């Protein structure tokens, strides 16, 4: 495991941890076995901080996000908000989901086509019995960039552009005055011209409201543009994390290096062989070793760590602001 120093500003943010996963494990039954979708994750989100969670499809990102939302219960470990472990009784969960709001990637799928924009945004305040519904809806739409808000009250989702629909979804979350947004691929379904607008909106909400956010994405370019810190996930576990500039300009883990190589400015394309292993059969040693370009190229053997890569388990990374990677080869340059 590698750790390097971080700035005092970043350290202060992490000391004000708002939402945290502590040794989180989430398993599901699968064909008579147990799929380890989240297999030991420590992750913290500080007050006013944006953390990007990146990785390929099927690596466990969405399951981790749903567990942080209280939509899945961990097999072991805990979700901690403001220093207190999440209580899964219905009344406590209802209060928690007012504070931690989910923004989904598909606005057409998350908006009821029979409901107007007003009804979509008012749904949360009605569930929680908040007074001043019309004012809440108008303010939420305004903050989401739909102005004047009254112009959108009686529109239906099919009458809006993709960017406007995503703003309605964000307004629905803002209507409950949350402290944390969990955004699952928030711009994946949008045209490139609109993505920048939505990312700018999320940054503005952080600046204006002090919102924290976990942004789940497969796009490292998005992480670069919006996040303070990045956590790279592979086969149910964080394999590298740290300040976004540090991780994305000098990635230590071979998996992160491969993800970075697909960006246009990358000097070399790294093509990973095969698919991520079955989460019911996680390999021994480093969980990435079967696809690792460092091991396949012989570089690991040259440094004498190839046997460790295939057989020796790596420690679960702690929740820290410092740059760190779970990699036997990378340890040599620590």
Automatic annotation (TrEMBL):
Q: Which family does it belong to?
A: Belongs to the ABC transporter superfamily.
Outline the extent of the ABC transporter domain.
19-260
Record carries keyword Lipid metabolism: no
- Pfam families tied to this protein: ABC_tran, oligo_HPY
Question: Where on the tree of life does the source sit, at the highest rank?
Answer: Bacteria
Which PANTHER family did the record assign?
Answer: D,D-DIPEPTIDE TRANSPORT ATP-BINDING PROTEIN DDPF-RELATED (PTHR43776:SF7), TRANSPORT ATP-BINDING PROTEIN (PTHR43776)
Q: What is this protein called?
A: ABC transporter ATP-binding protein
| Listed GO MF terms | ATP binding
**Which source organism does the UniProt entry give?**
Nonomuraea guangzhouensis
